[in-house]
Specification:
The complex is a heterodimer of chains A (about 110) and B (about 120). Chain A contains no helices and eleven strands. Chain A has about 110 residues and is mostly beta strands. In chain A, a hairpin with a 6-residue loop joins strand 7 and strand 8. Chain A is globular. Chain A starts with a strand and ends with a strand. The model of chain A has no long low-confidence stretch (mean pLDDT about 95). Chain B has strands at about 5, 10-15, 20, 25, 30-40, 45-50, 55-60, 65-70, 75-80, 85-95, 105, 110-115. In chain B, the strands form three sheets. In chain B, strands 2, 5, 6, 10, 11 and 12 form a six-stranded mixed sheet that branches. Chain B has a four-stranded antiparallel sheet with strand order 3-9-8-7, with no helix packed on it. In chain B, strands 1-4 form a two-stranded antiparallel sheet. Chain B is globular, with a radius of gyration of 14 Å. Classes of the chains: A mainly beta (about 110), B mainly beta (about 120). The interface between A and B is medium-sized, with 27 and 24 residues.
């Protein structure tokens, strides 16, 4: 069964450093998403991406964040200058249609020291 | 603005008994509604969705949910709980009238099923 994969599973970084979280969505999906979940809290929408552009983003997704689909298979989330409060689990998801269910990856745990 | 409320942080039920996990929503148009389950240290897994049609939708692992427009609810149910159903359950809503694909998740309800 196809699945969404994410690397790394755990990323530790120093405050102010740039991080890139990587995702490989399901191959025939067209819609891509990033969410984050701070420990013990709700899952928060960050951004959706379709047709090589951002279709919607939340207020969390400020200028420090960017997304890219560099090569037709990977989907990346970049945080330019990490803050302590960026520590969270980051989930990538993809869907085949805009109304369909989303398939989530296992997540990347980001720890900012 | 769209929102989702899961009024119970935790639901406890004995194995074999029916379970209900509650969800209410607020959107400006007709909602797309979803339930996801999260097991420890795992991503979210899709259980079921309501887009249109029959108000009672059936999903994975014997779960079902009923869309109630007048009460703006989408409660998750299962006739007979299993210990293995113990997990964190998230209700989610998308408002298709916004034109985007933003999905809002509830805070989650932790289900404990005791043997």
């Amino acid at each position: 069964e196809p699945e969404v994969t994410q690397t790394p599973s755990h990323q530790v970084t120093q405050m102010g450093q740039e991080v890139i979280l990587r995702c490989v969505p399901i191959s025939n999906h067209l819609y891509f998403y990033w969410y984050r979940q701070i420990l013990g809290q709700k899952v928060e929408f960050l951004v959706s991406f379709y047709n090589n552009e951002i279709s919607e983003k939340s207020e969390i997704f400020d200028d420090q964040f960017s997304v890219e689909r560099p090569d037709g298979s990977n989907f990346t989330l970049k945080i330019r200058s990490t803050k302590l409060e960026d520590s969270a689990m980051y989930f990538c998801a993809s869907s085949g249609t805009g109304v369909g269910e989303q398939f989530f990856g296992p997540g990347t745990r980001l720890t900012v020291l | 603005a769209q929102s989702v409320a899961q009024p119970e942080d935790q639901v406890n039920v004995a194995e074999g008994n029916p379970l209900t996990v509650k969800c209410t929503y607020s959107v400006s148009g007709n909602p797309y509604l979803f339930w996801y389950v999260q097991y420890p240290n795992r991503g979210l897994q899709f259980l079921l969705k309501y887009i249109t049609g029959d108000n009672l939708v059936k999903g994975s692992y014997g779960f079902e949910a009923e869309f109630n427009k007048s009460q703006t609810s989408f409660h998750l149910k299962k006739p007979s709980a299993l210990v293995s159903d113990s997990a964190l359950y998230f209700c989610a809503v998308r408002d298709p009238t916004t034109g985007g694909f933003k999905t809002i998740f509830g805070a989650g309800t932790r289900l404990f099923v005791k043997a």
